[in-house]
Amino acid sequence: MLNLIQNEWMKLWHKKGTWAMVALVILFIIGPGIMMKYYETKTTEDTTWQETEKQAINDYKEIMKSDDLTAEDKTFYEEKIAISEYRLANDVPSQVDGSVESFVSFTSKMLTLVTLFTVIVAASIVSSEFSTGTIKMLLTRPVSRAKVLTSKLLTTFIFGLFLFVVNVVVSALVGLILFGATTGVELEIVNGQVVEKAVWNDLAYHYLLSGGDFVMSILFAFLVGSVFRSSSLAIGLTMFLSFTGGMIVMFLSRYDIVKYIWLTHSDLTQYENGHFMVSGMTMPFSLTILAIYAVIFLVISYMSFMKRDVTA
């Protein structure tokens, strides 16, 4: 199995597109970092953080005068005001802008790009073998088809994890170089009290929850690529569901069946921000639904690959 994975890994890196993906991930980190640094420099030349906080308080108070705000909105702005007032009273600047933590938090949203590139690999790693005819040569080896397909799947996940590590490491290095070490404190309201926020713990939790969409998108693209032998179809269909999944769930929200669709649960970050697609969801239930669909995707992929005629 290890030799098969090594072979797939070498074939993957012989493609120029693989290097282009890594380069784009790095570029999409460095580029925004430079722009954020420039904007921060221009801003700090004009105003101090105290003036910014005072202006924020005034803005929030003006917003709260509106009669259209819900109870949740009022609570949100009241907490924002409390945090800003705490900063001014205790001389605690924010690290929202101009810190390595804030930059890593910003680039964590680029995991969508990592998922997209990994989906491209997942969709093409099987289908390309059929389109080029190299699958016949691959299957002449004295190994089972199940091992061949498993090696391709594991290689895809290894590549995705590699891009994930590149995203985190490069983000931390760029953030450290451009913004330096932490100079402020991130605050939040817990049980009505202003407390210091564990930024790195929250980031780790966010990355962990992002794994739901990451894994399911890869498995779905791998399924489509294995069954239909078309990488373009797998990539297009996976991206279509990724971008329209929320709309599909919203359209089906009036029906109970929506709770049993994997698109409803793949974005586990909804448990981080509390904005659920469907009410009444729980983490164990979402993980169970995703696990069931993951098994279904894998079973279909393997059955299709095992029974497919490659001699024609």
Strands, total number: 2
**Residue runs with pLDDT of under 50 for 5 or more positions:** none
Biggest sheet: strand arrangement: 1-2
Secondary-structure content class: mainly alpha
Listing every helix as H and every strand as E from the N terminus to the C terminus, the arrangement reads HHHHHHHHEEHHHHH
Overall pLDDT: 81
Task: Outline the structure in words.
The protein has 312 residues and is mainly α. The protein has one domain (2-307). It has helices spanning 2-13, 16-46, 49-64, 71-90, 100-107, 111-132, 134-138, 145-179, 199-228, 231-251, 262-265, 270-273, 283-307, and strands spanning 187-190, 193-196. The protein has a two-stranded antiparallel ribbon. Strand 1 and strand 2 (193-196) form a beta hairpin. Helix 1 (2-13) crosses helix 8, helix 5 packs antiparallel against helix 8 (145-179) and helix 9 runs parallel beside helix 13 (283-307). It is globular, with a radius of gyration of 24 Å. The mean pLDDT is 81. It holds the Pfam family ABC2_membrane_2. The chain crosses the membrane at residues 20-39, 110-132, 153-179, 204-225, 232-253, 285-305. It comes from Lysinibacillus xylanilyticus.
SSE arrangement:
Blueprint: H1 2-13, H2 16-46, H3 49-64, H4 71-90, H5 100-107, H6 111-132, H7 134-138, H8 145-179, E1 187-190, E2 193-196, H9 199-228, H10 231-251, H11 262-265, H12 270-273, H13 283-307
Antiparallel strand pairs: 1-2
Protein name: ABC transporter permease
Transmembrane segments: 20-39, 110-132, 153-179, 204-225, 232-253, 285-305
Keywords: Membrane, Transmembrane, Transmembrane helix
